[in-house]
Known about the structure:
Blueprint: E1 5-9, H1 13-24, E2 28-32, E3 47-48, H2 49-58, H3 61-65, E4 69-70, E5 73-77, E6 83-88, E7 95-97, H4 100-113, E8 117-119, E9 124-128, E10 132-135, E11 140-142, E12 145-148, H5 155-159, E13 163-167, E14 171-179, E15 188-194, E16 197-203, E17 208-216, H6 229-235, H7 240-244, E18 253-256, E19 259-262, E20 266-267, E21 270-272, H8 275-278, H9 287-303, H10 308-339, H11 345-355, H12 359-366
Parallel strand pairs: 1-2, 1-12, 2-8, 5-15, 12-21
Antiparallel strand pairs: 3-7, 4-7, 5-6, 9-10, 10-11, 13-19, 14-17, 14-18, 15-16, 16-17, 20-21
Helix pairs in contact: 1-4, 1-9, 2-9, 9-10
Amino acid sequence: MARRTVEIAGAGLAGLSIAVRLAQLGWHVRMHERGKDLRMFGAGIWLWENGLKSLQILGAYEQTVKRAKTIKEWRVADGAGNILMARHCTPDDKLLLPPRADLYQALIDRAVELGVDIETSSVAVGARPEGVLIMEDGRELKADLVIAADGAYSRVRESCYCTSSIDYGSEAGIRMLIDWNPSDPEDICTEYWQGPWRLLFNPCTDSHNYIFLSAPVLDERSRQMPIDRDLWAKMLPHAKDLIDRCTAAEGARWDRIVNVRCHRWSEGKVAVIGDAAHAMPPNLGQAANMAFTNAMSLALTVTESQDVPDALTRWEKKQRPLTDHVQWFSYIYGLLVAKTPASMLPLRSDLVRGMAKTEWFEWALNRGARTVPDGYEPSMAPARS
Ligand SMILES: Cc1cc2nc3c(=O)[nH]c(=O)nc-3n(C[C@H](O)[C@H](O)[C@H](O)COP(=O)(O)OP(=O)(O)OC[C@H]3O[C@@H](n4cnc5c(N)ncnc54)[C@H](O)[C@@H]3O)c2cc1C
């Protein structure tokens, strides 16, 4: 039987993960990336168990995590330095923190090994439900499956009328790598909150740590790169020593935080995945992990069925409740950080401290991370070091 074909718009983390999985399952895969080359910016990325297991399925785990720090705890501290919440990790419930570039390269290498065609400078402008990807250069590429993995502002999703809302929120953030320092914590991520301003410190590799700074989007000075260190130190006095080290400009990146909701994740033979389907505030470090988890499920569901539109509907029905939950939790978390009035900050601290002790919070916080992706077998787990 002829190999089934898929055209994918976007070679980000979501596009590459579905490309690799479909190629493993025997599909002929072509990807289209609008960029001139495949490049990742300088930051780290939180990979939880659901993402790590997905990478084990893809055969990209070892290369991704070879330099990554293993995190033992994620802490949130208020402006007075008090710990509001601590999430512990164990060898069976891990958080690893590789540089994004290592993850991206591992996925690219797997895609190439599996014979995925990757076209760069190739821009998709839309899709038709019968399975056609429409390109800016006029080509109309017919396939058994078309995937919109072209990010939060997806043109392909828009062309299929799948968008329900794009909420630009009120936060924006800068990500960068800073040089490692011997006094830095080796295995604890700490998020410092001060009103709507925050700094998240992450151990990343033996040579670099990853910093995420967020602030109200309308604050012009907070958008400057290299960062305005006087401003950030004034806003986050507890983290002044770290802010003084945030000198990187090259490789750093500023982003608005967006939340994308879809009416549906597919239209006919066109599926929407990753940020195109569910961009969310980064507060749980789950958006890419959920993209991987959903990609594992999508690939198996369409491979096991000849009726692609029906398979896509079933895939969404199965995966969406979990994604909606993770997205909702991340959104509410962001509201708490960005929207609490100054007079209510002590109450916010009490609320988080109280909630963090409840069983419900433990479940809700970790529901995504503790999901086992479709197709995962315990035999895929790496040997313990
Ligand atoms: C501050 C911040 C921190 C984050 N931290 C984490 C974290 O720790 N853990 C986590 O799991 N997630 C995290 N995320 C989210 C994660 O980065 C994203 O969910 C993930 O990168 C989305 O991947 P994607 O492939 O869906 O989209 P994108 O990364 O946007 O990739 C889309 C690709 O499609 C290409 N493209 C766009 N339009 C077209 C077109 N028309 N034709 C062809 N190609 C096109 C783009 O060039 C790009 O390469 C964070 C996000 C932010 C903002």
